[in-house]
Amino acid sequence: MIVGVVRCECILFSAHSLKEKRSVVQSILRKAVHGHNLSASEIAYQDAWQHTELAFACVGSARTAVEHELSRALSLVDFRTEIERVHTIYEWF
């Protein structure tokens, strides 16, 4: 069994309120977990308007399958124009 976790620190340049930030973050988190073997959460900077840290976790029998799911989740972040990923950390267990 392989457990993969990816944490990514992000900046939201266009967010002017927590409401705007949360709408972007919640949209990404919902799309990441919908129909996939993945857990997702905002793990830091919940009270900052333009800063967030997201975490995605996946459990699988093969590392390649877990990497694929985590990469798909990160592509959801990269696809959005209002959020920019600035720091990413992978962890394997």
Automatic annotation (TrEMBL):
<dbReference type="InterPro" id="IPR036746">
    <property type="entry name" value="TT1725-like_sf"/>
</dbReference>
<dbReference type="Pfam" id="PF04456">
    <property type="entry name" value="DUF503"/>
</dbReference>
<protein>
    <submittedName>
        <fullName>DUF503 domain-containing protein</fullName>
    </submittedName>
</protein>
<dbReference type="InterPro" id="IPR007546">
    <property type="entry name" value="DUF503"/>
</dbReference>
